[in-house]
Every structure is written in structure tokens, then in C-alpha cells.
Amino acid sequence: MEVSTIVAEINTAAKTLEGNTHGAREKLLDLCSSLTAKLETPSEMIQKIGWAEESAFTSLAVPARTAAVRFAVDLDLFETLKEADQPLSAGQLAKSSDADPALIARTMKHLAAMKIVSEDGGNGYTSTATSDALTLPEYRDGIIYTYDVAGPSFRNLPSYLKKTKYSNPTKLDDGPFQEAHGTNVPFFAWLGQNPVYLAAFNHYMGGYRKGKASWMDPGFFPVERLDQNLGPEEVLLVDIGGGLGHDLEELRAKHPHLQGRLILQERPE
Fold first, then answer.
1. pLDDT at 41
2. Of 58, 53, 49, which Cα lies nearest the Cα of 151?
């Protein structure tokens, strides 16, 4: 599509977004990505991939933005900004985190350029909706999980595939994840052996759809079909691999009239 065509479709999608039409937000995001791809030069694209862009799986690549956000999470920089009632200088942030002032200054400049935090006209830095979100467990731990656990699998995928002569991975205990983490334990068993990352994974899954429409909301799955006037001991729904039961809790909260038991089937840990 030509630029003018994409822009026209963006305007149309923006109007449907204002009308709260399902799928409008995703359509608008896709059109904006198309416009960026149409306007970028090859050198701009390479610079973005190398210094700013995250992967399509969100935070699974190693660019500077994701790395900076990852250790900013460790230093509680986003919490410090959120709690402040005025802009904070890099020096103040360094003091609160007991980190090298020069390192914090460089990091904050990059985070501001990437729109993670806001630079207040040279007076210091303030929080944004994005940095505030990164103080919440589901988003903060999402960064920890995707960077520390999932990320290495993708970063090592080319070397793993080369080593296996580009065979499709088929074994639970011998794949890019095991290669990256130096283990022969399947993924979920490995999580069970690493409680810090298990907790991060659970928080990440808990917030995976936050801010988006759920399958049980109007216009998606016809939940009324589940209303079969079941007895209190009859099973309504079994969620296999449902984590901590986020979907079941949401279903019960949104549709309390549904009768029957909700069962979570998951690993003991």
C-alpha cells in the first residue's frame, strides 16, 4: 500500500477505536507498523533493531532498550520515579539505587529517548504510564521472565539450529531452551527448580491479557452456552495448564450465575 492509503486507513481505524469496536486497537497498531516500515530507510531499520526494538514476542531480544529496562527494574528506578513528587536528576536516582552516577545518567538518557521515562526539560526525569506499569508485578516480572528466561532461548536459537543441522526441535528435554540454560530438564520442570523465575512467570501470565478484552467478554465466546443448570458437584469447566487459575477466577467474577465446579489442572508447584 502507498503511504497515503495507509494514512487514510489509520484515520478510519482511529474512528472505530473511538467507538470501542473490537479489534480496532490491534488494527491501528498494525497499520502504524506498516507506515513505519514504509517510511524507514534500511539504515534506520538496522539502527532500531540494534538499539531500540524489542522482538515480536515482546522483550525477548537483546537491544539496549530491553537491557536498560531490565536493570532499571533491579535498581527500583521506576518505583523511585513513581513515588517522587518532582523531577529527579540522574544523580538523585544514582544515590537512591547506590549505582554509578555516570551509568545512571547514560541509562536514563536512553530510557527517555525510548519514551519509557520522561525528561523534564533538563531538570530531571519523571515517570510515565509505561514506567509506572513496570512497578506492577505482572509487568515488572514480565521483563524479568522474558529477558532472563525466555530471551536466551531466542538469542541462542541460531547457534542451536546450526549445531543440530537445522533440525526441527521435537524433544522436551533437548531444545534451544536447554541449550541456552545448560540443562536437560524440560521447561516447566526447570521453572519448578527455580522458584524466583517460577514466581515471575506466574505474575507475567497473570497480566498477559491485562487491558485487553477476554474470551469471556461480550462479542467473543458465547459464554451463555455454558449455562446448563449444572448441580453444585458437576463440572462446568476444566482449565488444563491454567497457571494460578486466572481465567477461572475471572470467569466466576464476570459470570457468577454459571453453575457447576471450575477445576484447575496444573503442576503441583
1. 75
2. 58
